[in-house]
Write a structure and sequence with these properties.
alpha/beta; 2,3-Dihydroxybiphenyl 1,2-Dioxygenase, domain 1; 7-stranded mixed beta sheet; 7 helices
């Protein structure tokens, strides 16, 4: 039997001795994220209640869904980011008071954005904002930013004391900016997704 190169690649990726699997614990990053989330949830009780629902209904923590945390830019926060292995990355921002983004490449952690203001925000990753609003019977659908099938959309779902919980839907884009996209581009993206989902998966 002829082994397809793709099969060899998959076997290599599934091999736990592969160097690509040499992940190491990142306790400082985990501690930083948990502390930021705790401060945020104290500021926004409705988000904390939503987090309890997530635990009860999915067995996961709200932090597991967080794709980004926005927090005030302070010297202490900068030091903690450095200690936690977060490094700066260049990206786009939609708000004028946000200028810096940090990522942790040694683990699966939310990005951390720094703002000149004293507000905090958390963005939860969802596949579909419309489905999220429908399933959870959330109010404020009219406040969704971004067009259907655009590369990025987000919407606020709960707010508190200088804090807001958002849901964000992104497709092949990891920035934080909204840009108008022609309808033909969005349609082309859907065609590409359909081809990807119907691709051949069995080789040999």
């Amino acid at each position: 039997m002829t082994v397809h190169p793709a099969s060899e690649l998959l076997q290599s990726l599934n091999d736990p001795t592969n160097a690509g699997w040499a992940w190491s614990p990142q306790p400082e990053a985990q501690r930083l994220v948990e502390e930021l989330m705790l401060v945020f949830l104290e500021r926004c009780p409705d988000s904390a209640a939503f987090g309890e629902r997530i635990i009860a209904e999915t067995g996961t923590h709200i932090t597991d869904w967080a794709g980004v945390i926005l927090t005030p830019d302070t010297p202490e926060t900068r030091d903690r980011l450095d200690q936690a292995g977060y490094t700066p990355r260049t990206t786009e921002f939609v708000d004028e008071d946000i200028h810096y983004a940090f990522e942790q490449r040694l683990g699966v952690f939310p990005d951390i954005l720094l703002t000149e203001s004293d507000r905090m925000s958390v963005g939860l990753r969802v596949e579909s904002i419309a489905d999220c609003f429908a399933f959870n019977q959330l109010k404020g659908f009219e406040h969704i930013q971004g067009e259907p099938f655009a590369r990025a959309r987000w919407a606020p779902i709960y707010s508190g004391e200088r804090a807001a919980l958002w849901v964000m839907e992104r497709h092949g884009y990891n920035g934080y900016h909204l840009a108008f996209e022609p309808a033909e581009n969005r349609i082309a993206a859907m065609h590409h997704l359909e081809r990807f989902r119907t691709r051949a998966r069995c080789f040999g």
